[in-house]
Amino acid sequence: CVISKRSWADPMAGTEHGVEMTSRARAGARDVSVDLLRIVGALMVIGAHINLENLIDGKPSMKRILVSCVVGDGVAVFWLVLGCFYFAGAAYGLRLKKLLVRVIIPMVLFSAFTYYFHGVLCEGKTLAQSLSHTGEERLALLQGLMTWDNAVKGTNHFWYLYVYILVILICPILAAFRNTIVDTKKEWVLIAILFCVFVYNDLSGNRFAGFSHHGFNGVMGACPFVFLGDFLYRHRRYFQGNVRLGLIGAAAWIGISLGRAYLVRFCYGLPQPVDEPLFWYTSYAFLSVTALTVCVFGLSGLVRNIKLERVIIQIGRCTFGVYLVHMLVRNFYQSRGMNLRILEIVHGSVFGYQILYTLLIFGTSLAIVEVWVLFRMLLGTGKRNRDAK
Hints:
With about 400 residues, the chain is mostly helical. It has helices spanning about 30-50, 60-70, 75-85, 90-120, 125-130, 135-145, 160-170, 170-180, 185-205, 215-235, 245-270, 285-300, 305-315, 320-335, 340-345, 350-380; strands at about 55, 60.
């Protein structure tokens, strides 16, 4: 079936254009494989924000390092998903309007809520103490906005949204370049060059490109994954729904994570320990998210139940909201010692703690988002995507 343009039900996805899809998309106009990848990316981001320290008494823990490598590329997955629809034919003005409505306004509203209520929810303050702020705190907030940085306590992860806004703003520039190489051998050359740039930057200890989580340094790290997402999605016919290739992708992803973990452990033993291989703007992440995409798109062939498809689509639609609120949820739980209780429940198991705590935060965040969506629908101010009916 051929689908038409849809609204940005998930603003991280960009705008989808008409593409030929398999019958698995019969549950709606959204691609189930992409929504599944969004969910995996959200779980990875949460996992990265709750994982245990890699060093125990100054010595590296291989299990903890492996977990860090497995969950460390959630942001790279989000950039890749953005690339799947980034170069669609939507008008630039419409993109900016939806960016404002679906990203900037929710970000500002949630930042304001966190600014005033983080204290009472997560720091043990009274409501009056939480609502009041000193002149220095207000000045720090203003300075953060002026430097395009987030200064609201409990929303450090919003750096991604600040960078996301910049990536959307430069869309015409990237699109003009991409249109000169699309569907030619040059696009293969571009992917190879981008990977080589990451390799060289890794060898330089990130001194060559200076990627970071801020401003245009973040944009420069994000753009290669946007191009990679566009490349993989346009060639998905070679692996989407192919369970065998999905299993190969899973094996490659696990193998890359293991190799990366051993490299990180080696780096911790250097005279000047470094942890650069753990970051999402590395060649290791470039390979890892490629393998993970093949894995998820391939294994999505096992999803044949229409009801399951609709569940995946609905959860995938909520991943932006989950990203917004998950750090507040994490801080709320940790202020009440939930992380320590879970460690006791799993008897100190690193993997058990990671899985259980991640699912708890994801489930709670998802419930909050669904309640908000239902509330808006009851007020008549929100509606579900018509294409998903």
